[in-house]
Amino acid sequence: MISLAGRDILHAWSRFVLTGMGLGLLIGVTLSMAGIYRGMVDDAGALLDNSGADLWVVQKDTQGPYAESSSLRDDVVHSVRGMPGVARAANVTYFTMQVARGARDVRAMVVGFEPGLPGAPGELIAGRRITRSHYEAVADVKTGFAVGDTIRIRRHNYTVVGLTRRTVSSGGDPMVFIPLKDAQEAQFLKDNDAIVNERARNAANPALNRPGLPGLLEAITDAQSSNHNVNAVLVQIAPGLDAEAVAEPIRRWKHLTVFTRTQMEEILVAKLIATSARQIGMFLVILAVVSAAIVAFIIYTMTLGKIREIAVLKLIGTRNRTIAGMILQQALGLGLIGFMVGKTAATLWAPIFPKYVLLLPGDALRGFVVVMAICALASLMAIRAALKVDPAAAIGG
Amino acid sequence: MHSPEHGIRIEGLRKRYGEGNTAVDALKDVNMQVAPGEVVGLIGPSGSGKSTLLKCLGAVIEPTAGRMILGEQTIYDNGWKTPDLRALRRDHIGFVFQAPYLIPFLNVTDNVALLPMLAGQKNAVARARARELLAALDVAHRADAQPSELSGGEQQRVAIARALANQPPVILADEPTAPLDSERALAVIRILNQMAAQYRTAIIVVTHDEKIIPTFRRIYHIRDGKTHEEAGEGRAIDLAPALA
């Protein structure tokens, strides 16, 4: 038996392909939305991977350092290093800022780290690691900086000495790594006017500027204008130990909040990007409904355009299931063309997106199944209309 | 495939639409007999019941009473005697319509071969049968063309070939010459006569067309739901031009 659907598609292939392309662009947007969500989850995973930590020690009762602000004194790291099971620990700071690049700003997460310890940038794709204590930076390639460029952070210029790839914040902002001390200063740095005003206020305060206590005023002013805080302590545990078993004594004895990798993933994926995920989920549902409506409308219209032929087919003895199969196959064919166009389009335009778009084969497969299911459902209205056609309609009078 | 030895016979066929006070008797007492190889005309004014009769004969609506015998098989006797009317139409009745109504997305060969394929024949066998019919109807050279590439006359010949594809004992032709000029209309009737003789098929031609009525040897007039048989002129049409 010849394929009636196939022949009809071939007969009107240009209309079919154009319709499929239109549908395909819609499917491409749908796949891209899923890819954006996957990209956000992958960014979160990359953030945790790049930190190199097994445990995140943060300010008590906070969910820092990525989801909430967290502040610890930078000497906490010494006591953490002394806890059982801790192999290495390092201070780290994170703050997001607009970094000037030429005439434009780049939104970046500035990371203060200690070289050779957790939190340091991973593999470099160009340049070298930071070897000086101050004013050198390693930047993610997505910032647009090249080796040798100068980055201005607050009041200081940093020379880019190395480039990394896929080092991003949970929001997808590329990272700029600078030495910890510089980052501490930059994070809490006040402007000159504020420092002068602070000094004047201290000097005018009789409690702080006591004649009998020389050096007190300078000590207070110095303490106010310097920063010894960090956002978190990143911990690597000794091999073979359970992360939770190492975390518990730190929580108990140091009165700090400690997250394991699993808990941190939970914070990032289930809490930090949960709203975005729901937003994308809503878009996916709306796009699916719109796609179904378009396919249903197209197939229904195409079927109505063939009512006379369907009446003739029924009159000459074509089974209902053959006619239903023809319409179903056309809907599936439309879905197949749409999916191929959509997948190609999504793959081609994914790198253009400012945020990371991760198109997983599994998502594509699931998308294909959903598209086919939607097309099959969408064809039901047309099939119903076709099956209601009276074969007598082919006979005049 | 059916061997058309007995043509079609209709006895006391009635069709009533509706019930009670609103009932309309579209067919009151229809009697017809068409022998294998014979072409008869069925004529009558609008509303006389021609289309209703055609639909009853075509097994697309159910008569109210009467008897219909197709070939050797009683298909209706105060109720359908066959469980699968679709198969009955496919295997035992050919249809030719006012317009050719070819399937636009199938080429000429497959338009004709579709019926044998629907009847379960292999594609190669069905296409061979189609090519044979197309050759008989002098359209073999358009076998691979799409219907939209054919002239009106060629399309009508392909439609006749499709009606003959399963070698039915009867072909119902509904105003097959209505859109054609005199020459082409006569050519269609000539072809129908040739095919009726060649394939031993009974053909009933429903028509208003004054041009072709003189060509029938027998005519059934239908008026107020009743048929009256009369002899036709049976005018020779051998000289009619080929249907281009």
TrEMBL record, chain A:
Instruction: Indicate the secretion signal residues.
Output: none
Q: State the UniProt keywords alphabetically.
A: Cell membrane, Membrane, Transmembrane, Transmembrane helix, Transport
Q: What is its main location?
A: membrane
InterPro entries tied to this protein: ABC-4/HrtB_transporter (IPR051125), ABC3_permease_C (IPR003838), MacB_PCD (IPR025857)
Q: How does it sit in the membrane?
A: Multi-pass membrane protein
Tell me the ranges covered by the MacB-like periplasmic core domain, including all copies: 18-251
Highest taxon in the source lineage: Bacteria
ABC3 transporter permease C-terminal domain location = 282-391
TM segment ranges: 12-37, 280-302, 323-352, 364-383
**Compartments, record wording:** Cell membrane
Q: Which PANTHER family match?
A: ABC TRANSPORTER, MEMBRANE PROTEIN, HEMIN TRANSPORT SYSTEM PERMEASE PROTEIN HRTB-RELATED
Specify the protein name.
Answer: ABC transporter permease
State the organism's lineage.
Answer: Bacteria, Pseudomonadati, Pseudomonadota, Betaproteobacteria, Rhodocyclales
TrEMBL record, chain B:
Q: Name one GO cellular component term.
A: plasma membrane
- Residues forming the ABC transporter domain are 8-244
GO MF term set: ATP binding; ATP hydrolysis activity; transmembrane transporter activity
Q: Which PANTHER family match?
A: ABC TRANSPORTER ABCH.1, IMPORT ATP-BINDING PROTEIN
Recorded hits in CDD domains, A to Z, give: ABC_MJ0796_LolCDE_FtsE
Q: Where are the transmembrane segments?
A: none
Signal peptide (from-to): none
Q: What is the protein's species of origin?
A: Denitromonas halophila
**UniProtKB keywords:** ATP-binding, Cell membrane, Membrane, Nucleotide-binding, Transport
Q: What is this protein called?
A: ABC transporter ATP-binding protein
SUPFAM superfamilies, per this entry? P-loop containing nucleoside triphosphate hydrolases
